Structure formats: C-alpha cells, structure tokens
UniProtKB/TrEMBL annotation:
Main location as per UniProt: membrane
Membrane topology term: Multi-pass membrane protein
Locations listed in the record: Membrane
A Pfam match: Wzy_C
O-antigen ligase-related domain: residues covered: 238-362
Transmembrane stretches, start-end: 46-67, 88-109, 121-139, 151-173, 206-225, 237-265, 277-303, 315-334, 354-374, 386-405, 411-431
Keywords (A to Z) from UniProt: Membrane, Transmembrane, Transmembrane helix
Protein name: O-antigen ligase-related domain-containing protein
Length: 442
C-alpha cells in the first residue's frame, strides 16, 4: 500500500513546491487594488487614519514601498526604452507636489490646511506608487491582457450596480457594513429632472462617470480584438458600461463617451465600424422607448441654462485671487478645500494648489500617457495588443476631458483609475513586442 501511495505523495509534494514558487506580481497587486477601489464603497475609511484610511489607498502606499524595494534589490537589467516618458512625467509631477508642500510649510496656513497638506503628499505618493507598479511591474503581454480583462469585468459589475440604482432609485450601498470601516458621508441617490443619478460605489455621479468612460475603451478593445474568447464575455462589459453611461444623466459622461467612440471608430475593422454605428442607433432608439423623457432630458442638458455651468465660471475670479498669492508652486496639494469654494475644474484647482509648475507637470503627464500608446501600437503585429494602443489613448482622452469638469483628485476612484491607466500606458510601451511589422485592417 505504501508503494502505491508513493507516486501520489510525490506528486502532491511537487504541486506544493510549485505553489510555493508562485508569488504575487504587479498584475496581482493591481487587481487587488482595483477590487478595493471599485467594490469597497468610496466613502468607507479606517476612521483614525482620516482621508488616507481607505483600503485602496493603504494598498497603494504599500505598493509604492514594494516598488522602491524592488528597484533597490533587483539588479537584473530589463530591456526598456531609453526614455520612459510616463515614468519621467510621474516623477516630475511628484516633484512639483513636493515643491508645493515645501512652499506650504513656509506659508502661514491654518492648522487644518497644514494637516491637509501632509495628507495630500501621502495621497500623491500612493497614486504615483500605483502608476509605477503598473509601468514597471507588468513585463509581459499576457499579464497586461489579463489585468485589462479583469478591469473590464470589474467595470461591468460597477456599471451593473449603477443601472440597478437608476431603475430602483435605491443606493443599496448604505446597507453594506464592513467591519473596521466607517462611512464618511451619507449614501444616497440624488436626482436630476426626475431621473435618479446613479453612483454605484462612488461618492459622486461625476466620479462614477470617470470610471465608466475610462474603462469603456479598454472593454471595446477587448470585445473587438480579443477574439479568442467567446462573444458574451467580451461584449457584456461593453453593453453594461455603455448603458450605464447613457443613463448617468451626466453631461460630462455623455461627452466623454461620444469622444471615446469617435476616436476609436477609425481604428476598428470596417465590419466593426458598421456594426457599432448600427448598435448605437438601435441603442438610442431603445433608450428613447424604454426610458420616457430621457431623450428630452439629455437634450435639455446641452441646450438650456444650467446653474452648474454658471457655478464653474463664477469660480474663476476666486481662483485667480488665490493663484496670484503663489503662482509658481501654489499653496500645497489638497489644501484648497470646499470650505473656500468648489471650483469643479481639476486643472484650475491644481493651479491653485501646486501652481503653474504643477499644472504643467500634470498636463505633461496626461499628454505623455495619451500619446505614446498610439506611437507604440505600430510595433505590434498581433491582436489584441495592437488594438489596445488606441484604447489606452481614448481612455486617457476621456479622463483628461472630465478633469476639466470636476475636482477629480478629491475622489479616490476617479484619481485612482486615472493613475492606474497612466501606468498601463507606460507598461504598454515598455513590453517588448513580438515583431515590428505593421498590418492593415480592412
């Protein structure tokens, strides 16, 4: 009996050895970060840690430390481009935030603002950590595609909850109790023109729209180009995210979604373009028939006077008065709190907090992450990697657009998604391609 059992025991020992060699890599860490970011309600915190107490933020901070440890201890050279523009942009942006923090330390701020400045620098470090882990940690095509597929499915679940909230008018999130975490705000569903404004697990409909519109291009790329998988798993995220965007009753989400389709349309095969145009027409008709009044509400958002637009334009005078105090480096990241004014424009807010230097570094980072995937796609002769380049460009375009409509860095899901996608853009350009021939799609 012992001889019969010996091969089985040996195989079991071998499997245990293989499992022991499996260690979490960047894809594993980023998957965990995305789960914590989108599944755990955005208002839940470890109360004593304040604004830095979200589980996703804590993991992002640990990821930065892990990245630093890896850079010091791993001496194996990796073939990378001579200049990694996303990485350079990230360090430049972080340097601008550090300079702004130094200026704020020399400025007579209130005790509350000084505390927020400390927290702001920690938050920026965590965001840059996630970017660097994505940029440097994902080294193969397979791991990048696996993470992209996971993000698409998380986006589908995120959008699905929002759709349920829209049709039921119920948040459901306020019923979730997570031991050790406390809610920082009262969860609830607001309305616009009689329609519920879904938020899923986000704090605000605009934050919800950032996540939707930045994941949508990735879902479209996987649906059209990742043809080794069955059709339903590929297209379900696209359907859910597009539907949620259309029902978001958010002007910026509709504009960003339209921009995504217009930018990606020329990159698709001819058959996919025709099918997508037909699907958009049928979907618009279905929306008009299934949700009475939605079409007129969407039209009114773009044709009638809106107090939210007036509020944004009225903020310019207040913003300029604060910018003039410290135009180069600002007053410190995160220190211009809603107690002063809600400007609803991250670019304007960044100019106040980190100055003209900080704004320039942020714009450079966004543009670098947006442009380099388009240039890099020419070196791929395989799908879906070739189609992922324009998708990353469209994702950054959508995120960059919505930054002009609200103070995104005050919302963890919005800024977390933005920096994670930036890291994916850098990763896309760092992974060695299998060939440098180009192909023409018909």
């Amino acid at each position: 009996m012992s001889n019969v059992g010996t091969p089985a025991l040996a195989r079991l020992a071998e499997l245990r050895g293989e499992l022991g060699r499996i260690r979490p890599d960047a894809t594993t860490v980023l998957t965990a970060y995305a789960v914590l970011l989108y599944v755990v309600p955005s208002d839940r915190r470890i109360a004593p840690l304040g604004g830095a107490g979200s589980l996703a933020s804590l993991l992002a901070t640990a990821a930065l430390l892990w990245w630093g440890w890896h850079q010091i201890n791993v001496a194996t050279p990796v073939l990378r481009p001579k200049i990694q523009w996303v990485r350079v942009g990230a360090f430049t942006f972080f340097g601008a935030c550090v300079a702004s923090y130094a200026v704020s330390a020399l400025t007579p701020l209130t005790a509350a603002d000084a505390s927020v400045a400390d927290l702001g620098l920690v938050r920026v470090a965590a965001l840059v950590g996630i970017l660097l882990v994505a940029n440097d940690g994902i080294t193969t095509e397979a791991r990048l595609l696996l993470l992209t597929r996971r993000l698409c499915w998380l986006g589908a679940a995120y959008a699905g909850l929002g759709i349920v909230q829209f049709f039921t008018g119920t948040s459901f999130v306020d019923t979730i109790q997570i031991p050790g975490l406390t809610a920082s705000v009262d969860a609830g569903i607001n309305a616009r023109n009689g329609f519920p404004r879904a938020v899923s697990t986000a704090l605000h409909p605009l934050e919800y729209s950032v996540v939707l519109t930045m994941i949508l291009p990735l879902a479209l790329a996987m649906a059209i180009h990742d043809k080794q998988r069955p059709a339903i798993p590929r297209w379900s995220p696209v359907v859910l995210i597009t539907m949620a965007s259309a029902l978001s009753v958010t002007r910026s989400a509709l504009l960003a979604t339209a921009a995504v389709f217009l930018v990606l349309l020329p990159s698709w095969p001819r058959a996919a373009r025709i099918a997508m145009i037909a699907a958009a027409a049928c979907g618009s008709l279905a929306l008009y028939l299934v949700v009475p009044g939605m079409a007129s509400t969407i039209l009114a958002m773009f044709t009638e006077h809106d107090t939210s637009v007036t509020s944004r334009t009225d903020s310019y005078g207040t913003a300029l008065s604060f910018i003039s105090i410290s135009p180069l480096f600002g007053r410190g990241f995160g220190t211009f709190t809603p107690a002063y004014r809600i400007v609803d424009n991250q670019y304007l807010l960044s100019t106040i907090e980190i100055g003209v230097v900080g704004l320039a570094s942020l714009l450079a980072l966004v543009l670098a992450a947006m442009i380099i995937p388009l240039k890099r796609r020419r070196s791929w002769n395989t799908q879906p990697m070739r189609g992922l380049g324009p998708a990353l460009f469209a994702s950054m375009l959508a995120g960059g657009m919505i930054l002009a409509f609200f103070d995104a860095f005050a919302f963890s899901q919005a800024c977390g998604t933005l920096f994670m996608v930036m890291g994916l853009c850098g990763c896309y350009c760092n992974i060695p391609s299998k060939g440098f021939e180009t192909i023409e799609e018909r």
